[in-house]
User: Which sequence fits this backbone?
């Protein structure tokens, strides 16, 4: 029921029910606090310098890079869903498309914000555009992520402009309509850009000939991690979308998309995950039997340090790889919402574990014969900034859900699952 | 004309497109990046003409020749002088950061009387009054300088005593003084001619004698060689830097060095490996083997090895007389390659003053009655900071840096690094007499004053240090001995005048005496000395006389795991 | 005729005194940050202690000075820098870092297997007045940028200026001596032109008992090490792990 004193109903689409403003503000409040703390932490880092973090000369990349890699992998659902809908003509996934765009926008804008925080001289960020190094994977990542963020912005804009009040401005309506025509083009461009930067993020580590743990052979200039990262991203992206959608449904008490959409997403995710695990297994065998022997490095040395032992690899590939692939594709389990979402969660966790191992274990491992295995624990400023990105995402998504047509209500179907 | 939303949009789009074509956004971006390169709070180096001058480091008695780069009159970098025969171009790790010491945050810049700021005038008045009321003790950490002569002259005139704090190397030579009557400060090791050295814990390769003197010798004759010309045997536990590079490492627990020395002497005497017949140690070989943890065979092998390549000398790191006794047994006293005395017959008394580390009548600081009953004690800035005289007397402590928690009555700001003209007497444990002059290169702060200058201020009849230096140069010139080592080596006999000698010395040259004759120094020892338990090793750091380390020393202690912190804690964080 | 400046470091001579570390920091205006630790400090020249892993009387220790290896081939840091802030100087072979262009992404630090690169985690600062003791030939860096050994390039620059002022085209080798080479009290670090067959450093670099760190990676470092002791030479590459103690925790 709308509270008449502080009503924002005129901003909410007609015919759609949303919770009262007071309740909404209460929902947002803790996230806003988390955002505030994180912004303060980020401010400290910008003002005092990166000595506010626990990164050091041996752990030059830390929690934030892990966050960046993870968040971009999970945000791959945006481009991939667009690809599936507009290029592969899978119309049944259309209901989730807007939500996918918002999730993607949140993920990429959050990643860019953290990247700006992570560099020592943020005001020089434009140097990469002015003096680009074509050999560097990071140049590629910078260009593509920036361009893709623009693309996502352009994809988000029409959704934003469809807000009840904003629609009233004829120029916005016209603008939105024009943009809408662009969307398939944007989807194609987005797919191309995403393909490259998802891969280049993997390439970041795969080209490190100084770090045999991460180094991979590959195809021409692209190490195998380039392709593995793309695969894992498109495998986990849809799963993350499923989780976000399911969480929204749970919180609002409404069925927002047909169960079929979730099942479809899950099936795609599961198949891709299975292909990914197979490809990664082949890649690992090649790495163990060809790449490493050429460098005369003993592979087992990488796994003697707890907790980065073989059990962790097993966890990543089987418990968080094969198992969710099975749960998401097997008809019986996929039909049950609990198993389906469980599989999705495991898939996302698997990709995050993969990014974590590559970010942290690579740097923890010794390279010189007289190095030690090192430990790293992020500082509260790093964790708080991480928290700020999560809070930012929840707030943007919540605002988008409340005021924008993220999920068009299906005709004739009762959207209420439980009372509000 | 009504401004519509459409107009606004069109104008905005046009302005944006237009702006991109102008230099404005690009210039702004460029300015932003230039700003990040030139933040105001990033210090900039001094701009000014760069010159290179030479002087000598005076932060410890070893007197390393130093080449100093100066910009706008300030030292901006130091390095060794390769033509210098004393340190041969090397400096200790701390020396490379010495030029920054004068701005250390703990630099003393005002006279302090107990807790309050005072003035030089009041300090002079107080000291003058004290010296009139009773005996004064002056403590000197770097004896043999011109300033030291001023100290001695003062106590002679006003009554009191002059005391010296000996460095680590001189302390280790103390037993020979007891057995021969020759002052330890005039003794040295003839390292240049030794072929076997047995070091009992002395850090030969890490802060022992002048940097460069032994390290270069060792590098040229031993490093990495399967058959070195110089055999370095390090007796010590655990594995130190010297032990790690030594030809042989003999791990012996702390405190068992005397037992090993006794065991070796036993074997040498029993097996007639040496001409000497005594003194015979009272410790049996079996006991020595037990105390050191080495087997009897190992000690026997070691003894045979030691004498297989003479000349051999044993070197102690403390006043352990057992090691000195071993040298007597080895016949290493007063011979080439062993313990030698620097020539004392070819120089006049005045030149002896110039080059001696300390005149023979001076004794080392102890808990002597003279300190306890003194009216006032003056501590020169060359004395280690932690030296606390056991006295209720009024203490006047000269120091360039505040080492913290000082309980003295007067804390007097002394000149810092290269801020005062001084001279450089022979370095500790040198086998040959040397003399050099260290001109002041840095601009001295107005509030700094050395102890010698202070005393001259109280008694203007005292001869100031600069005059003494000149007199010493005159004396050296008149002796017609030795060689001046600058860019080339010039025998003094070929110099035409004192001015020529002084010119060279002021430019950083070193006067080196002619090589001494051997055989005029003998130790009489009939009984093996008794040692009452382990002698604590001499702390090496006090040879660095400043109470603070150069800021860049953090690279060694704090920003890496290379060295443990000076306090002995492990500074390693990883 | 281009030069390839490199070094041969005799580890049998290195006593681990650290004079090279301090001399390097003084020459290059490296600040001593009070809060820095062994993991966050700035040590473009770093001497590391190594051992044969044995305790007791059979223990052996040595010291290895580590600085930028100035890799000649597929230089790991050069290929990864997104804005070309580092390059291999064609004329000298020195791997040059441009702190003014560095944006502090630290990708190069991840790429360098020798851990020879250091980040300015703090603004450099010196106590009041101490900036007068800074070397005027070297720019002071700001926070947020990566730095490393650049073979005392300022000294090369001075040598070139001196030669140019005298009308010469080649520098006098005696005028260009990096700070660490000059500082070493046992002359363990030898410096010279690896492209000049008459240079003693060239001969030493190709002699027996010489090795380079991580040579199997193929980076072709221009810093060579020498030791008569086999266990020291074995530290060139991480071994098969036969003697490695298992990490605890």
Assistant:
């Amino acid at each position: 029921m709308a509270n008449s004193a502080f009503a924002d109903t005129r901003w909410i689409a007609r015919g759609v029910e949303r919770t009262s403003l007071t309740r909404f503000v209460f929902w947002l409040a803790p996230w806003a606090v988390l955002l505030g703390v994180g912004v303060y932490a980020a401010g400290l880092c910008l003002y005092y310098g990166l000595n506010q973090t626990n990164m050091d000369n041996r752990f030059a990349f830390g929690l934030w890079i892990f966050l960046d890699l993870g968040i971009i992998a999970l945000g791959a659902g945006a481009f991939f869903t667009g690809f599936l809908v507009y290029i592969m003509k899978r119309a049944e996934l259309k209901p989730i498309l807007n939500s996918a765009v918002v999730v993607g926008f949140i993920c990429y804008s959050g990643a860019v914000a953290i990247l700006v925080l992570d560099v020592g001289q943020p005001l020089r960020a434009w140097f990469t555009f002015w003096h680009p190094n074509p050999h560097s994977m990071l140049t590629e990542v910078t260009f593509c992520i920036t361009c893709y963020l623009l693309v996502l912005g352009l994809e988000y804009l029409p959704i934003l402009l469809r807000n009840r009040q904003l629609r009233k401005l004829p120029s916005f309506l016209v603008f939105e309509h024009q943009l809408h025509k662009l969307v398939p083009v944007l989807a194609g461009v987005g797919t191309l850009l995403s393909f490259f930067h998802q891969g280049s993020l993997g390439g970041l580590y795969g080209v490190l000939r100084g770090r045999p743990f991460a180094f991979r052979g590959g195809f021409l200039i692209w190490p195998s991690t380039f392709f593995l990262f793309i695969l894992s991203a498109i495998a986990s992206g849809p799963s993350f979308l499923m989780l976000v959608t399911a969480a929204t449904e749970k919180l609002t008490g409404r069925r927002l998309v047909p169960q079929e959409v979730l099942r479809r997403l899950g099936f795609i995710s599961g198949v891709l995950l299975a292909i990914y695990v197979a490809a990664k297994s082949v890649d690992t065998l090649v790495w163990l039997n060809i790449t490493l022997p050429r460098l005369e490095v003993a592979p087992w040395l990488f796994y003697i340090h707890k907790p980065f032992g073989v059990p962790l690899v097993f966890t990543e590939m089987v418990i968080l790889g094969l198992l969710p692939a099975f749960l998401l594709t097997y008809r019986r389990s996929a039909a049950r919402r609990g198993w389906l979402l469980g599989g999705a969660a495991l898939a996302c966790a698997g990709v995050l574990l993969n990014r974590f191992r590559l970010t942290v274990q690579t740097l923890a491992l010794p390279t010189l014969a007289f190095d030690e295995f090192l430990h790293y624990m992020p500082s509260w400023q790093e964790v708080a900034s991480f928290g700020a990105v999560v809070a930012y995402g929840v707030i943007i998504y919540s605002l988008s859900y409340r005021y924008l047509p993220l999920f068009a209500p299906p005709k004739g179907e009762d959207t209420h699952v439980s009372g509000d | 004309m009504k401004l519509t939303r459409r107009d606004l949009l069109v104008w905005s789009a046009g302005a944006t497109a237009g702006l991109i074509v102008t230099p404005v956004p690009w210039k702004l971006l460029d300015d932003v990046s230039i700003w990040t390169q030139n933040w105001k709070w990033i210090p900039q180096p001094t701009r000014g003409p760069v010159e290179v001058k030479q002087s000598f480091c005076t932060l410890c008695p070893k007197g390393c020749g130093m080449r100093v780069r100066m910009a706008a009159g300030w030292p901006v970098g130091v390095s060794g002088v390769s033509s210098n025969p004393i340190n041969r171009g090397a400096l200790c790790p701390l020396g490379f950061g010495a030029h920054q010491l004068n701005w250390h945050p703990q630099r003393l810049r005002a006279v302090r009387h107990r807790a309050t700021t005072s003035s030089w005038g009041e300090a002079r008045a107080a000291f003058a009054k004290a010296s009139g009321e009773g005996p004064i003790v002056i403590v000197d950490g770097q004896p043999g300088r011109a300033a030291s002569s001023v100290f001695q002259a003062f106590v002679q005139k006003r009554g009191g005593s002059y005391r010296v704090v000996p460095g680590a190397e001189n302390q280790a030579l103390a037993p020979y003084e007891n057995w021969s009557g020759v002052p330890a400060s005039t003794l040295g090791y003839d390292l240049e001619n030794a072929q076997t050295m047995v070091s009992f814990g002395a850090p030969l390769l890490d802060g022992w004698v002048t940097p460069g003197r032994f390290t270069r010798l060792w590098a040229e004759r031993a490093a990495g060689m399967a058959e070195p010309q110089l055999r370095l045997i390090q007796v010590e536990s655990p594995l130190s830097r010297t032990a790690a590079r030594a030809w042989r490492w003999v791990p012996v627990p702390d405190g068992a060095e005397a037992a090993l020395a006794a065991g070796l002497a036993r074997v040498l005497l029993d097996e007639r490996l040496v001409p000497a017949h005594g003194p015979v140690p009272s410790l049996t070989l079996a006991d020595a083997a037990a105390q050191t943890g080495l087997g009897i065979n190992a000690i026997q092998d070691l003894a045979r090895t030691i004498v297989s390549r003479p000349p051999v000398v044993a070197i102690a790191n403390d006043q352990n007389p057992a090691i000195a006794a071993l040298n007597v047994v080895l016949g290493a006293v007063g011979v080439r390659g062993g313990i030698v005395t620097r020539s004392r017959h070819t120089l006049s008394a005045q030149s002896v003053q110039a080059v001696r580390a300390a005149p023979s009548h001076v004794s080392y600081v102890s808990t002597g009655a003279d300190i306890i009953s003194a009216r006032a004690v003056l501590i020169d800035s060359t004395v280690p900071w932690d030296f606390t005289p056991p006295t209720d007397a009024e203490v006047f402590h000269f120091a360039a840096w505040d080492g913290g928690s000082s309980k003295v009555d007067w804390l007097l700001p002394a000149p810092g690094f290269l801020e005062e003209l001084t001279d450089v007497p022979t370095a500790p444990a040198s086998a040959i007499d040397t003399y050099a002059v260290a001109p002041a290169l840095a601009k001295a702060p107005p509030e700094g004053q050395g102890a010698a200058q202070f005393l001259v201020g109280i008694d203007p009849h005292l001869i100031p240090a600069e005059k003494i230096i000149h007199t010493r140069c005159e004396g050296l010139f008149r002796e017609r001995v030795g060689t001046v080592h600058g860019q080339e080596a010039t025998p003094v006999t070929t110099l035409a005048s004192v001015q020529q000698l002084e010119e060279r010395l002021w430019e950083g040259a070193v006067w080196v005496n002619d090589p001494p004759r051997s055989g005029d120094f003998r130790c009489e020892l009939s009984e093996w000395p008794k040692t009452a338990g382990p002698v604590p090793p001499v702390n090496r750091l006090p040879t660095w006389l400043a109470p603070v380390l150069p800021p860049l020393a953090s690279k060694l202690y704090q920003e890496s795991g290379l060295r443990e912190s000076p306090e002995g804690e492990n500074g390693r964080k990883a | 005729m281009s030069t390839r400046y490199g070094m041969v470091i005799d580890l049998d001579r290195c006593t681990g005194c650290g004079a090279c570390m301090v001399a390097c920091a003084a020459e290059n205006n490296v600040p001593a940050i009070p809060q820095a630790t062994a993991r966050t400090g700035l040590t473009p020249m770093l001497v590391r202690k190594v051992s044969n892993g044995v305790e007791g009387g059979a223990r052996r220790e040595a010291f290895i000075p580590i600085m930028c290896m100035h890799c000649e081939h597929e230089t790991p840091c050069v290929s990864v820098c997104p804005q070309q802030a580092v390059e291999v100087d064609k004329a000298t072979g020195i791997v040059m870092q441009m702190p003014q262009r560095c944006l502090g992404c630290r990708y190069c630090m991840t790429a360098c297997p020798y851990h020879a690169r250091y980040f300015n985690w703090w603004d450099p600062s010196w106590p009041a007045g101490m900036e007068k003791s800074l070397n005027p030939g070297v720019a002071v860096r700001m926070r947020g940028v990566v730095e490393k050994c650049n073979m005392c390039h300022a000294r090369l620059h001075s040598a070139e200026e001196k030669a140019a002022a005298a009308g010469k085209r080649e520098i006098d080798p005696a005028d260009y001596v990096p700070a660490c080479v000059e500082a070493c009290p046992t002359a363990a670090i030898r410096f010279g032109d690896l492209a000049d067959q008459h240079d003693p450093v060239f001969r030493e670099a190709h002699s027996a008992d010489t090795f380079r760190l991580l040579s199997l990676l193929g980076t072709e470092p221009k810093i060579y090490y020498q030791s008569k002791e086999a266990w020291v030479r074995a530290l060139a590459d991480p071994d098969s792990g036969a003697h490695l103690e298992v990490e605890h925790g």
